[in-house]
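Fold sample X.
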Amino acid sequence: MHILLIGAEDVLIEWLKLLSPHHTCYVSEPAERLIEAGAITLDEEKAGKVEILFDTTISSSRSKAELLSDVVRAMPGSVSVVSNTVLTTVTELGASLGIAHRIAGFGYLPTLLDADIIEVAIPYGADDSMKTFLTPLFEPIGKKLEFIDDAIGFVFPRVLATIVNEAAFTMQQGVADEAAIDTAMKLGVNYPEGPFGWGRKIGFGNIYALLQVLHLELGDDRYRPAPLLKKLALTEV
């Protein structure tokens, strides 16, 4: 498949390592690191070959709509959009862009591509036929598709964010320090990373942003970000 990727450079490199051996991957900015990772610089001639607009950004529906609207308008109507909707819903994004019939969402946080599955969702009320373009995109890279209802945070990112948040509350209350909490979770429940280890890999800012959106959308105190998590998000390098 011919795919145009959009996102931050480090995230694009992570995805290119998976996608470029199986698909033709384009980027609009010819950054050297992206080219080395297998990307091809998009030009007017190549734009006509694009089948999938693949958006990896982690942002709200409004920010995504502003980012993608010009690109979507410039692409042929046959191009499908696959967007990381971990902070919004694909229903809302599809409505904002006016492309509810050709968009799907997936749940992604940085550095979590080792999982064997990709959580995906289609807009509310959309026909199941929309799922057909996702299989040839993800199957060649060894990912099983897990279709879930369209909801902010999906499943794994939402659960992981609450684990990191609870660890921040635990440390904030003086129960244990960061190292002890990570060790307890790795040895006690056999997690590959402790909550703080995960937070640093994913980015405390991304965890905090997801919890903020969940708390605002659902009004559930289980998603209220710990004050310590906010400090970690504001001070991470």
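Fold sample Y, listed below.
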Amino acid sequence: MTTLQILAAGSLRGVWPELMAAFTAKSGITVESRFGPAGLLRQRIEQGEVCDLFASANLKHPATLRQKGLAKETGRFTANTLCLTAKRDIVTENDNWLSLLLRDDLHLATSTPRCDPSGDYTWQMFGNIEQRHQGWGEQLKRKARPLVGGPSSLPVPAGELAARWLIDEGHAELFIGYASYQPRLMLHPQLQVFTIPEPYNVPAEYGWAMLSPAAQPLAAFLTSQVAQQMLQQHGFV
């Protein structure tokens, strides 16, 4: 039996092996998965890389592949939100998530817009801040440093959380990333994780693109009750 070739967003790396093990146990179909920023993965597909199913951290990239005739079907399978991770010893008793972002003495790292949906969602969040506090969102766009998720970004070591690594290595004191990482980040006592409230936060919807009919069973599995429970256990919503 042919092994399915999967390209999946990097933020799925923690849950994906468990998902694929359950899928293989149910279907008998094996998979080989490669991970990366979803925008860069989409470009690789457009350039001819073999892929049966693309799991993206947004709905836009699957839709683009379908519009170009590269994907046969698309669908939504889970969602995420954003959170702020801070170096604990820089947080004062008067700080909250927004005051930390606006502090001039702190460096803010993000993922890279257009290459990685996490960066796109972060810029959307800055837009939400701008709508409610004129000038603040634009200030944050100028301040933010997209250090990961791009073609020439800093290489985060395998198995490391970008937020923890960037902060521990001194590249920044703050990082905006996916809330699904929050349970793992909270295991590190040197870090403090802040929830970003709904009026400002951005729903991050994940979608799949089926590029080969052979991937239809996997596309269906991603929305099954078993898969949805696994995703929720790993912090997705």
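Sample Y note: The CA atoms of residues 27 and 217 lie 8 Å apart.
Also: The beta strands are 4-9, 31-36, 53-56, 73-80, 82-87, 108-111, 145-148, 174-178, 191-195, 204-210.
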